[in-house]
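Office hours follow-up: a student asked to see two folded examples consecutively, so here they are.
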Amino acid sequence: MKTRSLSLYIHHRLISKAFCSVDSVSISKGCSSSRIEYPDIEPLCKKLGLRLTNKWPDGRPYYSHPSIYDPSIGAYISDSILIAEYLEKTYPDTSKLFPNGTTGVQSAFNEGLLATLTPLYGLILPDMFPHLNLVSKSYMAPRVEMAKSKDRAQDWIKLQEGMDQVDAWFVRNGRRGQFLLGETSSWADIVVVSFLFFIRRVWGEDSEEWKKIMAWNGGRWKNLSDAFKKI
């Protein structure tokens, strides 16, 4: 399994956590939520008839969570960005994550960020592994081993270069605010914060790794993290 594929595998879970912290919508009393283990994702998605999220490098279908079910239309929606788009259209009185027709641009940002931060996974996944439940450990062990960094010092350099690139994208808003689009947070900010949340959760706020990243790019990532403190 390629590192990028493994990154996609956990990417949607990270974003769902951040998204739910940014905005909320009214739901009926009958609604419920549940979490499932990694090896159960594909069988459940197939059982529910959920759409493919992507494909593995060998062409096999790739499924991911989160997903939601809307009884009013009798359908499931999967893929984080599609869920966000659906909820924004269904609940128009909530804050806008895709203002002024920026859905396409923000989708491209999402893909660019995934590619740019590839070095992160080889560094952090081995430290994430102990946090998994036993059934997921058995499933993820060979994948984590394959993704593990072969040269941590070099991958840290590559990760910082990647964050420098992301910082450059933010700077192009004319320095009008700390968010990608300026003064107002958007889907793109949630994508970035989902990675920051992941890093903080695995390595901890007192770790050297977290402190190092928080100091990069003039403290941009610390400021962005602080803006989403409730995550």
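And the second, which I mentioned at the end of office hours:
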Amino acid sequence: MCMAVITLAMPMCVYAEEAAVSDSDRATIESFAQQTVEQITSMTDEQMDEIMKPSSILTAPNKFFVEAVQAWQDVRDELGAFKATTGHDIEVSEDNIVVTTNVTFEKADGAVVLTIGREDLAPSSMTFDTGADSSMAAKMEKAALNTLMGLVIVFVMLIFLSFLISQFKHFGKLENRGKKNEKELDVAAKAIPVPVAPVQEEELADDGELVAVIAAAIAASENTSTDSFVVRSIRKANKRKWQNA
């Protein structure tokens, strides 16, 4: 930075008393302003911390560097990284030279205003113009678009819900139809008679010995003779009844 100040001071000593800016002075001032802007905006976090909180009083920077770094830190997140300068505007007063440098940053365009004292030809202040009005307009435009998109989404969801609710009546009809079919099936199932398997009687005409044995057993248990009854058929007894007995 000291070399840049010396480079600026040498040609300006000749024209310090002139209000008009010659082409050579303009070129020198613009070059100095661009170098200063690039130097401040390209600093790393460690370099800015060293300027804001120097580790030694022997390396403490002057007031200009502290204020310039602070101004850059305030707008760095909003503007983004430095990309290029697009032009300079120089105004000369009795005490100062004010250089406004138009700069393109990563996120937005801005301007850097550098003030140089005519007496010592050293920079005294640097400020950043972020174009707050245009930035606010962009934010308002973005907010309006977000609001419009939100309204569209809400209306679409309402239309979908209305359509879905209108279909509930069809769901009810399908449910009633299903219940009706179930009832019809139940009635039909109850109406079908369950066939009862006929009890088959065994013909005992050809099995005389078995009939005689059974008749004798019955007569003995009843204490009577076989002439008092006739065995006409033999049926299979239920096992559960025998077990209960």
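Two things to take away from it. The longest strand covers residues 82-92. Residues 1-7, 9-18, 200-205 have pLDDT under 50 and may be disordered.
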